[in-house]
């Protein structure tokens, strides 16, 4: 089973991109996950790379911005590449299967409407 569930804060404004190979649209961003260390009571922040494709990417780019609280369900994906020095490098991301807006109120871009509540978008 490959299942990941995260709640965190978006660290930058999202940008819709188009893949060169398949011309599919996507967005990638970091989610800051805060956790508390049990022994020292220190808060630790981990930054997780998140990738969304297609309609999900469009919705996220339209309604999510830096500082938004977001819930993500997805799967882990590990990819590798060979760098310029010939070393193999690995990258781990969470591929979005569904997400949920967790902010209480979100202003819809340029309109006077206010989005309240949660919106879950499945894959």
UniProtKB/TrEMBL annotation:
<protein>
    <recommendedName>
        <fullName>Single-stranded DNA-binding protein</fullName>
    </recommendedName>
</protein>
<keyword id="KW-0238">DNA-binding</keyword>
<dbReference type="GO" id="GO:0006260">
    <property type="term" value="P:DNA replication"/>
</dbReference>
<dbReference type="GO" id="GO:0003697">
    <property type="term" value="F:single-stranded DNA binding"/>
</dbReference>
<dbReference type="GO" id="GO:0009295">
    <property type="term" value="C:nucleoid"/>
</dbReference>
<dbReference type="InterPro" id="IPR011344">
    <property type="entry name" value="ssDNA-bd"/>
</dbReference>
<comment type="subunit">
    <text>Homotetramer.</text>
</comment>
<dbReference type="InterPro" id="IPR000424">
    <property type="entry name" value="Primosome_PriB/ssb"/>
</dbReference>
<dbReference type="Pfam" id="PF00436">
    <property type="entry name" value="SSB"/>
</dbReference>
<dbReference type="InterPro" id="IPR012340">
    <property type="entry name" value="NA-bd_OB-fold"/>
</dbReference>
């Amino acid at each position: 089973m490959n299942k990941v569930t995260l709640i965190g804060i978006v660290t930058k404004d999202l940008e819709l991109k188009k893949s060169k190979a398949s011309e599919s649209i996507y967005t990638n961003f970091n989610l800051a996950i805060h956790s508390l260390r049990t022994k020292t009571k220190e808060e630790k922040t981990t930054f997780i790379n998140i990738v969304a494709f297609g309609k999900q990417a469009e919705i996220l780019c339209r309604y999510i911005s830096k500082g938004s609280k977001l819930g993500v369900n997805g799967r882990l994906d590990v990819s590798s590449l060979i760098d310029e020095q010939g070393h193999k490098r690995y990258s781990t991301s969470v591929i979005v299967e569904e997400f949920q807006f967790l902010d209480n109120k979100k202003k819809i871009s340029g309109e006077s409407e206010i989005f309240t509540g949660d919106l879950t978008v499945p894959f």
